[in-house]
Amino acid sequence: MKIAKVTFAEDRSYVIEMGQEPFKSHFLSMRPFRCLEGLNKHWRHVPYPFEIHRDISADLTDLEYDFLFIWKGATDYGINMWNGIHYKNTI
Questions:
Q1: Core-most of 11, 26, 75, 81, by most CB within 10 Å?
Q2: How distant is the alpha carbon of residue 71 from its chain centre?
């Protein structure tokens, strides 16, 4: 399943376009989330709340911030931010 397109520039910056199709809109814990629904778990994309420079010249931290998710059980009520998923990227 394709969830995003990342375009890298020669100066090591990037632009990210999150896909529309695989995500469903949900309103949880008093805020909107874009969610990927699975049979047992739902994965919520969590937009990083601070400015991201989208520069990978030093490391891939900015890219990791763009792909923060939390999960909840498919039948659970609400969300728990402690269920965060952080994808560590490597070159």
A1: 26
A2: 11
